[in-house]
Amino acid sequence: MRAALRLLAVPSGVGTQSAGLKQVPPALLPPIPLYRRLLRAHRKFLPAEMRVLGDEYIKSEFRAHRDTDNPVHIVGFLTEWQTYAQQIEGENWRGEKMDKSKVDKMSDQQIGQLYELMNSIRERELAENDPDYQSPPPPPEKK
């Protein structure tokens, strides 16, 4: 009888890539546990300056999407943040390139934000690594 129970407890290959099927995605976390997981991942895996930027971004994004009623948007939002949490926890995000299909789906405003982020990262790296680097003057204010 014990052998039969042990055989029942063996994980099956159904739904995995080894069974020739598409891997079953993990269940989505509800918003509050996912939010907490993201902040814990930042605290554990990111340097202090990256953590501050990341925490503020997470907080603003979750606030901005708090009143969303469209289930498709909610699932997409939670899926992307859960994927991000897995990447941060696995530390396989460093040097990774962004998927072209995700960039193609971005709005002009999102691409602009991404460009600004890229420029600020480049400037920071230059300032840290090149003692002769002088940051460019800020652009003139529009009136």
TrEMBL record:
Compartments in which it is found: Mitochondrion matrix
Location (main, coarse): mitochondrion
An annotated GO BP: succinate metabolic process
Gene Ontology cellular-component terms listed: mitochondrial intermembrane space; mitochondrial matrix
UniProt keyword annotation of RNA-binding present: no
InterPro entries in the record: SDHAF3/Sdh7
Keywords: Chaperone, Mitochondrion, Transit peptide
Self-association and partners: Interacts with the iron-sulfur protein subunit within the SDH catalytic dimer.
Free-text function comment from the UniProt entry: Plays an essential role in the assembly of succinate dehydrogenase (SDH), an enzyme complex (also referred to as respiratory complex II) that is a component of both the tricarboxylic acid (TCA) cycle and the mitochondrial electron transport chain, and which couples the oxidation of succinate to fumarate with the reduction of ubiquinone (coenzyme Q) to ubiquinol. Promotes maturation of the iron-sulfur protein subunit of the SDH catalytic dimer, protecting it from the deleterious effects of oxidants. May act together with SDHAF1.
Name of this chain's protein: Succinate dehydrogenase assembly factor 3
Organism listed in the record: Hortaea werneckii EXF-2000
